[in-house]
Design a protein that fits this description.
Blueprint: H1 3-11, H2 19-32, E1 36-37, E2 40-45, H3 48-60, E3 67-71, E4 81-86, H4 99-110, E5 111-113, E6 122-126, H5 129-141, E7 146-151, E8 154-159, H6 162-171, H7 175-225, H8 233-244, H9 250-257, H10 261-281
Antiparallel strand pairs: 1-2, 2-4, 3-4, 5-6, 6-8, 7-8
Helix pairs in contact: 2-3, 2-4, 6-7, 7-10, 8-10, 9-10
């Protein structure tokens, strides 16, 4: 079962109580499939539980005649097609509409939420431009970070903000799915934070090893060329302690020598200058620096 299906099945556990809520939900479901033409409705869906909800809502309303039919597929990979027709809505949808139940109906018909393990996404796929703008405006009015685009002649109203998706799950009545979604996002954020910290530590360790390796290479060059005894006390001291402690960071070396990190950086900078002079001149240096 997809994550979207879980949400919709939980939403359907909550029944519209008033006539206004019933009409608003029906209106949203029909609009989602662009199924209203003037005063007629021709609604088609392959989803049995949506067809069942539509029939339940229609039967709660008085003096509303409908036709129901379905085409059974002979192929295993195909779905049955359910068709519900209203020849005359009697201006049913011109009455006052509940915006939330309307939005819930549209989501039931053509809404989608990605499994939070894979990413954060809520989408409304809508053929009708007017309906797409209606959904966009309603979500804007609810202070959601919503976007509207078009892909292959289909309008997509979408949200990528985790908190807004969670808010809408509560508004839609999918409370259990809300907690499941929230737990997944929390665990995902913790996992990402741990990974970032590990990557940071690995990067620091790699940098420390690379720095130490380069310093040891320079010191050995100086040692072989002129001998460490020809360095002044400060440089000889730092050179020897580096050779004896290959795995220590600059901060740890500075602590051993009881000097600042800036001080030890300056000493290594001076060792580097001697090394570069040796490399450039291929000559020995006989005086202490």
């Amino acid at each position: 079962m997809s994550f979207s299906t879980k949400i919709k099945k939980e939403m359907l556990l909550i029944q519209p109580l008033t006539e206004k809520e019933i009409i608003s939900e029906l209106y949203g479901i029909f609009l989602s499939k662009d199924g209203i033409i003037k005063e007629e409705v021709n609604f088609k869906t392959e989803i049995s539980y949506i067809a069942k909800r539509v029939l339940e809502d229609i039967k709660k309303l008085k003096d509303l005649e409908f036709n129901f039919s379905y085409i059974k597929s002979d192929k295993i990979t195909s779905h049955n097609m359910y068709n519900i027709q209203l020849k005359d809505t009697n201006n049913l949808f011109s009455t006052d509409i509940d915006d939330i139940w309307l939005l819930k109906g549209i989501f039931l018909g053509n809404g989608y939420v990605k499994d939070p393990q894979k990413g954060y996404s809520m989408d409304f796929f809508l053929d009708n431009d007017r309906v797409a703008n209606m959904v966009y405006d309603q979500l804007k009015k609810m202070d959601k970070k919503v976007f509207l685009s078009k892909k292959k002649e289909k309008n997509i109203v979408y949200i990528r903000n985790n908190e807004d998706i969670l808010d809408l799950l509560v508004i839609f009545g999918a409370v259990n799915t809300f907690f499941s979604y929230q737990d997944t996002t929390i665990n995902k954020e913790i996992s990402l934070k741990i990974t970032r910290n590990m990557n940071y530590e690995i990067a620091n360790e790699t940098k420390k090893i690379a720095t130490a390796t380069e310093q040891i290479r320079m010191i050995n060059k100086i040692k072989d060329s002129v001998g460490l005894e020809n360095l002044n006390n400060a440089l000889r001291e730092v050179a020897i302690i580096r050779l004896e402690n290959e795995d220590l960071s600059l901060s740890e070396l500075a602590e051993k020598l009881n000097i600042t990190k800036s001080g030890i950086r300056n000493r290594f900078r001076r060792l580097k200058e001697i090394y570069e002079e040796l490399e450039a001149n291929n000559a020995k240096i006989y005086f202490k620096k």
